[in-house]
């Protein structure tokens, strides 16, 4: 359970450090440009969340190695970005994660579940490829291509994990109210999304952006259709599900708009943050709070707190989007608002998680079941 509070604390700190490093020359070298910022969002925060959610309870010795590898890779990348030291530490974390995770995922029988194996392998190898590419070329020459593939692979992971968290919980909540939810996992939609997003991630470095745009836009529409069929709007007593639904909505909208920008050759930087800030932020905070508080204290997350966190992340997302269109306020002011809202959300969550882990019962979380 320690991965979640530590990743949450890191997420709360990383954005102010990024903004400072963008502006001042004495900032952290690993956060001084968009390349380092994207690397930490995907492979620092993102992979840390995956480790906490999918691994479940492990031996203390193994978790110590994993945490040390994750922490060391963060430190080395922040001070020595894309160095061999960064590669070595990231390799320890990634290889340890895959060593335990891949055998666990391979027991799945359905192809939609087994696809997590190649997905996790690709997500684990991408940061190592990025460092090697930077060392060989002097710069991360393939940054845009690797970043685009990383974004789509993490979007696919959020489609899968978010759906597997929301669908059974929504079905149970509807059943408690005397209703039967027919559209649960929606395997055909899930399969289509796996093919669309997985295929787009694999081919996007080499094909025309218009083709990728069409595929990703269709995937975004399917995500929104899947969300609508869960009928979360009628579950007003389940704040945890409603907030997860908001995150899933950000994911669908972000994919749709990202596809449109690729199709029309518009700038996509602002839209990308609907996925990385809106979707990743809202889904990760909701799932961390839900898992940790239920496993340690046996209670659901406080509704008011969840709503405030979700609202803060919505402010962070919209402010980050507004920064690129220079609407009403200067860009720097919008960025400050976005960073403050993001860090407030994760700081509040971090307090919850540390208190739950320190004072709650012993976790028996087996990790995700497929």
TrEMBL record:
Signal sequence range: none
Organism: Saccharospirillum salsuginis
Keyword set, alphabetical order: Membrane, Transmembrane, Transmembrane helix
GN (gene name): nnrS
Domain of life of the organism encoding this protein: Bacteria
Bilayer-spanning residue ranges: 37-55, 85-103, 115-140, 146-167, 212-229, 241-264, 270-293, 305-327, 339-360
Name of this protein: Short-chain dehydrogenase
InterPro entries recorded: NnrS
Record has Protease as a keyword: no
